[in-house]
Every structure is written in structure tokens, then in C-alpha cells.
Amino acid sequence: MLVFQDFSLVMEPQVSEKTLEGIQALIVNYKKKHEQLLEEQKELAVSRDNVQEMTNKCKQRSDKLKDQLRKDQQSYIDFIGKEKVKLKFLKDEEKELMKEIERVEAALKDQEAENILLKEQTDVFADVPEKKVVFTGQTGKVANAQQFEMNTHIVYPMQGGTALVTFEEEVVAKKILSMKSHQVDLTGDCSIVVEAQPVQLILPTLVEIDSEVCPWHILISNLPKMDTDTLLNKLEIHFSKSKNGGGEVDNCEMLPDSGTVVLKFMDKKVAKVLTDIEYHDVKLQQNKQHRVRVTPFLNGKITNLNTKMSMCSRTVLLTGIPAVMDPENLQDMMEIHFQKNGNGGGEIESFLYNPLGRQTSALFEGASSNREEDGQ
Q1: Separation CA 179–CA 156 (nearest Å)
Q2: What is the mean pLDDT of the chain?
Q3: C-alpha to C-alpha distance for 347 and 172, rounded to whole angstroms
Q4: Is a pLDDT exceeding 60 seen at residue 166?
Q5: pLDDT digits (tens, 9 = 90+) for 312-321
Q6: How far apart, in Å, are the Cα atoms of 240 and each of 16, 33, 60, 291, 369?
Q7: 311-334 burial, b for 16+ CB within 10 Å, e for fewer?
Q8: Residue 118: Cβ within 10 Å count
Q9: Position 10 pLDDT exceeds 60
């Protein structure tokens, strides 16, 4: 059961502001509003202080973060700088290591090349042409043994109007040099004046030679005694045929001092094939097979040469010889003059005259062991 009640709006009685009660009521009302304003002011002050404090804290935190960020940035910059220095050091070290590797590789290549060369030389020394030797019963001390023997061949260019005289005795040559000027009587009242001068030769005192295998040449030994041209032709024909392992021959030459033959091919691969086979049967005499030996050919290169000036002890140079008569007759007259003891001369071993206007050369060779003087 619903019960409805009546409600009515009750209005407070308004007090007139002109009355004392009205004025007092206004004062109370304004006091309440004032107190509310004071409370709101206090709350606003507290809020303001809180906001200010929060603002200060945020500012401090922001400053701290900025300082930390600045420190982090500086630390990062320092770290990057150190890493760059390390990277540069590592790159420099890598470059040095690469250079060292290149040097080592180059040294290894040089060493390998030297080893190959030494092996080739060893193979050559093991494959030198055979030569029969006979022990004669003579012995000598090892300390006095010669390790290397060299025959002297010195070419001495002569000027025109000069002569070379080699005496058998050194004392004669010294006497001729001490007299310097010599008047040589010719036919009748005719005579010439020549001047005697010492002969200075450049002699080697030290010779160092490096040898290497020549890929284009071969050395053929164990050859029979026969006509040289026929021998060279048969060898060239045989080794030019591919069925014999040969190839096109560029040159064929006999070495008279050793009795061996040197062949040069156009293709450097041919020589290696032939030397590896070593022994070859060649038709040389009356179509008979003759076994020859093929070994590598060595090329020599002088790497060190020391020389000295040496005066010939038995040879004298005569200068200032005029062309006054036939060269042969003039040489005979001068030779007779320097053979006479009365002119300070003696026995002559050789006499070489080069007239004016001509060019010639004298060849000095090593003398025998009992004579130190070179001969013409």
C-alpha cells in the first residue's frame, strides 16, 4: 500500500539587512566565507609548497641526469678514442706482420730457388764427364795443394812504333831498363834511338765465380777421336730428331781443351730431357753405335774480381821506333842489337815488333813453374 505524503518548500525567512539581526547574520555568513577562503588558501599554499618541492626534486634529478649523461658521453668519447688508438695499433701491427710475411715468403722463395740451384749443381757435379786418371806415385802435403788452377792469358794492346822483347834472363832485362835509351845502328851511318820501358800487366789475385745450369745447353762427353766437322754434324743430326728426345739445334761447338761438345737448343725443355736420360747411343763411325754421355752445362759468372799491377821481370817495351826501313829487316836489326852483350843485351826468347800505323796485340801466358815471367 503506497502512502503519498505532501512536501512543501520551506523558505527561510529573510532578515532585513537594515536590522541588527540581519547585519549580524551577514557578519556570521561572511566569517564563514572568510574561514573557507583561509582554509582554501592554506590548502593552496600546501599544494604550492608540494609542487615547488616536487619541482626542485625534478630539477635536481634533471641536473643529476644531465651531469651523468655528460659524464657518460665523455666516457664514451674517451672509450671510442682508446678503441681507435687500439685499432690503429692493430692495423699498424697487421701491416708489419704482412710485411714480415712477405719478407719471409720472399726469403723462402729465394731459399727454394737456391736449394733448386744447389741441387742442380749437385746433380751436375755428380754427372761431370768421366775422365780416366792414373796415380803416378807422387804425393804432396794437403796444405800445399792448389784448390784452383788458372792459366793466364793476358792480351796486351801495342801502339805503333813499339816492340816487346822477352829475354831469357831477368838480369838482362833489368840492365836494358836501367840504360833507358838505346842507339841501334842500322845500315851505314843510319841509326835510331829507342827507349826501354817496363811492361805493366793487370793480373787477377782473386776470382770468385758463381755457376748455374744453362737450360738451353748440354755437354756431350765420352766421344771418339774423329774428324771434328764430321763429329759435330753427326751429333747435331742425332740430337735434332724428336725420336731421340732432341729438338731444333741452334749451335754445336767443340771444346778443344776438354774434347767435349756443347749443343744449344732452341727449346730449353729439350736439354733437361736429354740430361735425365744421360747415356745415348749415337751413330758416329761407319754407322756404328757409340755411347756418349750427356750432362748439364754450367754457365759461370764472375761475382768478385781483385787485380793488381805486376811488372814483367823478363819483358821490356821499346818505344819511339821510326818506320825507316822494311819492318822485317828493322826487327832483325833490333833483335841483333839487343842480343849483343856489349849493348847490355843477352839471349832473346821472343821479339814482337809493331810498326807505325798498325795495330796489334801481344798475348802473355803463364810461364812454367821454374820461371815466374809471362811469355809473349
Answers
A1: 24
A2: 84
A3: 8
A4: yes
A5: 889 999 999 9
A6: 155, 138, 103, 17, 45
A7: ebbbbbbbeebeeeeeeeebbebb
A8: 10
A9: no
